[in-house]
Amino acid sequence: MTLLVTLTVVDILLLIAGLAFYLYVVGTQLTRIAGNLGECGEIVRRIVANAEPILPELQHINRTGGVVAGALPLLYGMAEGIVAGATYEPAPADAARPPAVPASGRRRSRLHDSVGYEPVGG
């Protein structure tokens, strides 16, 4: 029976040691979290202090946004009219397509002039 009592006491001591280690780890993590929350609180206070000068102008910004939002249907209708008048209509598939020509016409190389070569027709 003494063996059973000894093993029970050892088991209880191991359980207490495990719980103490667990509480130590959780305590250090909570301390670190508390420090981070303190820093976050300072950042939030700075953001609020920086936003205070903007608050009076928010009414003006919201009013301007309302005017723009009210004009959007009119602008949308005007854009639809422009798009309807400028819609691309492709040429029929059976139409012969001429070869592509540069907008500036044919270009003549000046490299021949630099070496003294003159073409026969040129």
Short description:
Helices cover 68% and strands 0% of the residues. The protein has 122 residues and is an all-alpha fold.
Helix content: 55-70%
Number of helices: 3
The biggest beta sheet reads: none
Q: Which structural class matches the secondary elements? A: mainly alpha
Gap between N and C termini, in Å?
A: 123 Å
Mean pLDDT: 84
Report low-confidence residues grouped into runs of 5 or more: none
How large is the share of residues in beta strands? Answer: under 5%
**Number of beta-strand segments:** 0
One letter per element, helices H and strands E, the order comes to HHH
State the shape.
Answer: elongated
**Integer-rounded radius of gyration:** 41 Å
Overview of the structural elements:
The chain is mostly helical and 122 residues long. Among the domains are: 9-52; 57-83. The chain is 68% helix and 0% strand. The chain is built from 3 helices and no strands. The longest helix has 50 residues, at 2-51. The radius of gyration is 41 Å and the shape is elongated. The mean pLDDT is 84. The chain crosses the membrane at residues 6-25. Keywords: Membrane, Transmembrane, Transmembrane helix. Residues 91-122 are annotated as: Disordered.
